[in-house]
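Re: the request from the purification team.
They wanted to know what the chain is likely to look like in 3D before they choose a buffer screen. I agreed to run a prediction and write the result into the notebook, where they can find it.
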Amino acid sequence: MSRKMTAFLIFLFAAPIVVYLIWPSDESRIRKLFREGAAAVHARKTEDVMAKVSFNFTDEHGLSYLYLKEGLARLFTRFPDLRVDYTIRNIEVRKDGAAVEVEVRVIAGRGPEAGYIAGDAADPLKMKFHLEKDRTTWMVVRTEGLPLYH
């Protein structure tokens, strides 16, 4: 067997292993979704936040994608400084989607004053996010535990 043929066979068998090892897992993609979403809230970028949410989004209160987008824009107007602190407690990846249990604290500021508007240090808001995968991108399709404020 020639050197070229040997090199080709080694490449043929090694390539799938290398791709498998460097290809991000579903869990790491989901963690990235939350990391980027929290950063987009802090940067007050409504479109970047909504890019993580499916157009088919709904929640237990009947909140839809458009209502969520409008509410987020109002929140950014009302509070110039927003920060989301979160802790992912569990990620369950299934064939048809994923469920992510998260503890959330939202800190808002206006001028020199800042405080928790969702959850707090002792008692974080416990939420569950349901996600669906579109090729390699995860999107939030439903939430549980989001409080409604009037």
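For the purification team: Residues 3-22 form the longest helix (20 residues).
Please add any questions underneath this entry.
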